[in-house]
Amino acid sequence: xxxxxxxxxxxxxxxxxxxxxxxxxxxxxxxxxxxxxxxxxxxxxxxxxxxxxxxxxxxxxxxxxxxxxxxxxxxxxxxxxxxxxxxxxxxxxxxxxxxxxxxxxxxxxxxxxxxxxxxxxxxxxxxxxxxxxxxxxxxxxxxxxxxxxxxxxxxxxxxxxxxxxxxxxxxxxxxxxxxxxxxxxxxxxxxxxxxxxxxxxxxxxxxxxxxxxxxxxxxxxxxxxxxxxxxxxxxxxxxxxx
Length: 242
Description:
Elements: E1 2-6, H1 10-20, E2 27-32, H2 35-45, E3 49-52, H3 61-67, E4 73-78, H4 84-89, E5 94-97, H5 102-128, E6 137-142, E7 145-150, E8 156-160, E9 163-167, E10 174-176, H6 179-184, E11 191-193, E12 198-201, E13 205-210, E14 216-220, E15 225-228, H7 230-240
Parallel strand pairs: 1-2, 1-3, 3-4, 4-5
Antiparallel strand pairs: 6-7, 8-9, 8-12, 9-10, 11-12, 13-14, 14-15
Helix pairs in contact: 2-3
């Protein structure tokens, strides 16, 4: 992780640098002795992490953070314990007192790594939750078999516990995915959840008729006949009406 040390005391920077040298994932790319110098270096290098003193000549560490357009992860390093609450109010990862204890430093760096991994996971999850268009291709794998399928060619999805069976052409692979999570990625005007078990491609529906208890029965181009639950029937009719 690219790291910048910000402290007006050269000796304090040197001691911290020596401690960080034992952590291979930390790369110290610059040092600053005041807030103005630090701001310039941060904007220039875009570090992942800064170790920041609070009381410095001119501006404080808090004032520096207020001036930044984009804030890296922050670990405060100070001789005073008066500012701990305020430090966490600005979302600092940790608050270390001088002289820095090696074990406490290790704990702080572990928090940095955990937050970095969490951010990465959130990013991947967000990307995986993007809404799918009918022309999007989806990759499916069931055992040793793999398919690239255009979404519009999928006629329906069927829930089987924590799995979903995907129907297209003569194939119906089973994938590890919940129907609830899949539903979030599909557009209502293209795919509709007709009951607890099925989501259907509305362009595959060729016939609709009333069914028991206020529900509906639909027929797909494939010949499959499925029931629309009473709860979903009103919404289904509204969706297909002019």
